[in-house]
Amino acid sequence: GKLGLRADFTRGFGARHRALLDPLLGPLATLHAGNSAHAQPIDYSQRVNATLFRLPLRTPERAAISQLSSRAVTHTEVLELLSTLCLSLGEMLLFTQSLTHVEVCTLAADGVV
After folding, report:
1. Which parts of the sequence belong to the Sacsin/Nov domain (predicted)?
2. What is the pLDDT of residues 87-112, one digit of tens each?
3. CA dist., res. 104 & res. 113, Å (int)
């Protein structure tokens, strides 16, 4: 099978199977809203002018039951990955035409972005 999912949110699979996507999109709505009392959640029925990558990082408990990967990722590994990504962004953007902005966010256990 495929080890990932690409879905058109406004029509096609995303529109027909919304309940399957909601657990994946919930944390993203929180990141989009940020800590602002005036922020509006993302309306996924409308076009979003962005590309989103969600890294499927797993605790040991989640990795043990995952159908995609049994590899757990520690908090330290995540921070190292994000640090490496941030340090490499300049070089990564050098040869892109449509990618002009990268935003890296973390969501703490208490829900603070």
Report:
1. 42-109
2. 988 887 887 777 777 777 776 777 67
3. 10
Cα torsion for 59, 63, 69, 71, to the nearest 10°? 60
DSSP result, the chain: --SS----SSSTHHHHTHHHHHHHHHHHHHHHHTT-TTPPPP-TTS--SS---------HHHHHH-SS------HHHHHHHHHHHHHHHHHHHTT-SS----------TTS--
pLDDT attached to residue 1:
46
The rounded distance, in Å, linking the Cα atoms of 102 and 51 is 10
